[in-house]
Write a structure and sequence with these properties.
The chain contains six helices and six strands. It is α+β, with helices and mostly antiparallel strands and 169 residues long. It has one domain: SMI1/KNR4-like.
Length: 169
Amino acid sequence: MIAHQNITTTMTALERIKQFLNEVPSISLGYTEIAFFSPDKLAKEQIGYSIDDNKKSLVTGREGDWKKEWLVIGRDGLGDPIIVDQSEANLSVWTAMHGEGEWDPSLIAGSLEAFKKILLNLEHLSKQRTNPADLAKNPISKKDQKQFIKEIKESNPEADIYYWSGIFE
């Protein structure tokens, strides 16, 4: 275990993010999804966020603009980016509504590892519920929804619970 921890701490943030992307599946649940990018397409997927179509930086340092330490790793069902903050050792995970004229991110997991645990729980809930028809036939019980949210609150007290609750609406 100690050797594994040393390997993790010696990996760069980008290496850790790519490893994460190789380990987690995209998840579809009824009407929504969280889709992740392939590690080899990360640079291309930054277009519209940190760079424009001509590869010109969109990072200005102004409030509400994209920050240089942010890396988009996927999108949710609304098309909002899933962002990892590479400036933090724990690689916190955020989202922000697109098309608002400025970026106002919300924390959805305190670390990449915590995000992975949330996703594994969500993947379990998505079994046989990947599209609207399946979800209608096999709805997620209120008890399971509450348990999912409770686990997030306990392990990620700073996380935006509204974001996670919205998955069930």
